């Protein structure tokens, strides 16, 4: 088994419209199996575009990408949908829960779509719900729970099928600092307990410092990266310093 879970080579994305825009200009990036990496950069630098190309929400204009040694862009629509469901988990800023379903039904959705048998569903649900500490809200509707709880439910749904790669776009963007901290502690323990490979976009240096490595984008390219050493505080400071240097929307720091 290769120790590279995600291999991106010379990824380009051009948005074609009234005004054409080169959002990604040749990104080379590798995520190791079991690695946790944060993606940062000024507003408009291409972070979400990069994540959307990896998650196959958006199609790159050029370049190559493999996830777990497979190229999702070679698949037809049906196989791509299966590939997404088996290999990838997604967590978004706005939770993306289905409001007509209960919390439990939301979490089980990926297994329902894959017609997993009832016994296995029950055991996986029990494990993930216990791990995330959301046993008490299983029968509630999504409008009856807090933002922090919503994100836990979204995380449970993203990991219940044990994806090879978990992708998160601003997962704490709609949370207060206490809920954000608790969601990040959860990501960290999912990563450590289940050896989940994790790629997360965030604009928050504290949130980013939960990762083992931070990559910085600027103007559609990779600008720099920082590896976490022994001291989280020092890592955090280096992240803040790089963002300050990059400017563009990080002046509030
Ligand atoms: N569908 C689209 N059509 C045209 N241009 C787009 C489209 N989506 C994004 N862009 C442009 O591509 C660039 C990168 O956008 P992207 O959303 O990836 O940046 P970002 O780094 O995630 O920004 P932010 O931190 O503000 O979310 C921006 O200049 C944006 O205006």
From TrEMBL:
Quote the protein name from its UniProt record. Putative ABC transport system ATP-binding protein
InterPro entries the UniProt entry points to: AAA+_ATPase, ABC_transporter-like_ATP-bd, ABC_transporter-like_CS, MacB-like_ATP-bd, P-loop_NTPase
Provide one Gene Ontology cellular component.
Answer: membrane protein complex
Q: Which superkingdom does the taxonomy of this entry point to?
A: Bacteria
Family listed: Belongs to the ABC transporter superfamily.
- Give the keywords, sorted: ATP-binding, Nucleotide-binding, Transport
> Domain ABC transporter spans what residues?
6-244
Q: Which PANTHER family does the record associate with it?
A: ALPHA-D-RIBOSE 1-METHYLPHOSPHONATE 5-TRIPHOSPHATE SYNTHASE SUBUNIT PHNL, LIPOPROTEIN-RELEASING SYSTEM ATP-BINDING PROTEIN LOLD
Q: Which SUPFAM superfamilies does the UniProt entry name for this protein?
A: P-loop containing nucleoside triphosphate hydrolases
Q: Which GO terms describe its molecular function?
A: ATP binding; ATP hydrolysis activity; transmembrane transporter activity
